[in-house]
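Researcher: We're teaching a course module on how sequence relates to structure. For the next exercise, students receive a sequence and then see the predicted structure as tokens, so they can try to spot secondary structure elements on their own. Here is the exercise chain.
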Amino acid sequence: MALFDLERVVDRLDFLDPAAGQLQKLISQRIAAGGPVAQRVKDGLNGTWLGHPLHPALTDVPIGAWTGSTLLDLLDHGRGEGLGHAADLLVGIGCASGLAAAASGVADWHDTYGAERRTGFVHGLLNGAALGLLGSSLLLRVAGRRRGARPFALLGYGLATFAAFFGGDMVFRMGTQVNRNAWAKGPEDWTEVAADEEVKDGALLRRRAGDAEIVLTRVGARLVAVGAVCPHAGGPMDEGKVEDGRIACPWHGSNFELSTGAVCQGPASMALPIFETRVTATGQVEVRIPPR
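Model: And here is the predicted structure for the students to work with:
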């Protein structure tokens, strides 16, 4: 079966939905029970501080370590203890960093649904099994049974490589964690979008400016304009709410600073686009993207 067909099969595995839903519910309960501290931990794992998702950066470490350990295991036949010890160390580094990558992956997966959630669930199950096999290999190596540890490591590495296909499928076919505003830049010249009297304090007014959808609102006397599409998963920001100078996405609760677009709370990791505003002498609101 071609991999292209395989990804479509996973899309239709709706019998996974109850288990995936229960796991997401459990994660939500744990975050709620942990309060602001748990939310900050999840934000950190989502990559709000980094400016893009953390998970792809973390996965490079275990994959690289396990690739190196696999090559060293294959070369370590009567060549002395050096290669074997180096392979053992790399397996350990891969397992430790794999736990961190798994935590960030779970944080991202928590806010998915439908076929995207099913694919992520399969991706996680495969990687979990791979981590278990490589962890078993590590324990055998510590016990001095390197020969018996190598088959576990090789199988785990193969499984992790296979799991990576589904991770790529989520990003490149489904668009998981891809910035929804990457191609909507907005007008460089002042563009009329609404009458000044239409924009109310605390209310959200959606308009189109060039290639971009925007939201207009007032915070006291200040007129602001931001992107109408949440960069995380495309949520409609005009259906969110404004509070304390922030705007919240109605889908997953991402919060953005209205004055700068900066992420205040995840799962979004990329800023919300902002626009300059002005009111003409005729009472029309005009916007443009900030000049470089």
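Model: If you want an answer key for the exercise: The chain has two domains: 3-172, 191-288. Residues 191-288 form a domain with the Rieske Iron-sulfur Protein fold (CATH 2.102.10.10).
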